[in-house]
Amino acid sequence: xxxxxxxxxxxxxxxxxxxxxxxxxxxxxxxxxxxxxxxxxxxxxxxxxxxxxxxxxxxxxxxxxxxxxxxxxxxxxxxxxxxxxxxxxxxxxxxxxxxxxxxxxxxxxxxxxxxxxxxxxxxxxxxxxxxxxxxxxxxxxxxxxxxxxxxxxxxxxxxxxxxxxxxxxxxxxxxxxxxxxxxxxxxxxxxxxxxxxxxxxxxxxxxxxxxxxxxxxxxxxxxxxxxxxxxxxxxxxxxxxxxxxxxxxxxxxxxxxxxxxxxxxxxxxxxxxxxxxxxxxxxxxxxxxxxxxxx
Length: 295
Fold this sequence. Notes:
This protein is of the alpha/beta class. It contains eleven helices and nine strands. The chain is elongated and about 70 Å long. It has helices at 12-17, 29-39, 53-64, 72-80, 94-97, 103-138, 185-192, 201-205, 222-228, 256-271, 275-290; strands at residues 2-4, 24-26, 43-46, 68-71, 145-151, 157-163, 210-212, 217-218, 241-243. A hairpin with a 5-residue loop joins strand 5 (145-151) and strand 6. Helix 6 (103-138) runs antiparallel to helix 7 (185-192). The longest helix has 36 residues, at 103-138.
């Protein structure tokens, strides 16, 4: 496989996933011919949107000789399971390709929600009781639960319930950082294994959330995301989830680029939703907890 161009810079998580492929990187059209011939690499990924006429002609001639080409968009969907978002927002196909769940899909989602809630509550009740005890012990000045306005389906706001993980009256910062001193010790473990999300089962029962979906984003952050990120609104075609495709494939966001990366995963989830993808996310979430491998 050959990556032609360097318009999109792959993240370390993407490069880790691509390690199983023999990949060469080049920005030279002439080098592609040598790479294809010498190493029998027949797939070329076009990682550039500014190709001149002569370059297109060269690529077209190789196509006639059996070299298979993939656009960056199709490559990312097929191999990285995310939808590429050009930074200029010029490609409007998302407005056509992304749609809310059909009635049948929504019925399946709610069945999964209630089935999953039954087992989740059954096994997590002792964990939640212990978490409440530890919160009051390590940070006694404050409530066990934390309530915050989040943005849900169709952009409507709702009150999200979580376990509190920060000391009361901590300094304001919309993003969490490594070694964040606002977070008390047991809360670090809760956040790592997503235990702080468990009270959101109440939001699922009310129909404000799903078990699986895009992250419920804090309402004060959303206006800037809408301004900076093309198609950010499309993630709100469905209700958010406790866990999701973005959450199991990318760590907590610390800046606008992290949010863009997670949005690409969210859009893929909406575009290609099916039961198999849902089960994969459940499995990855379980492995995050069982293997103590919090992203």
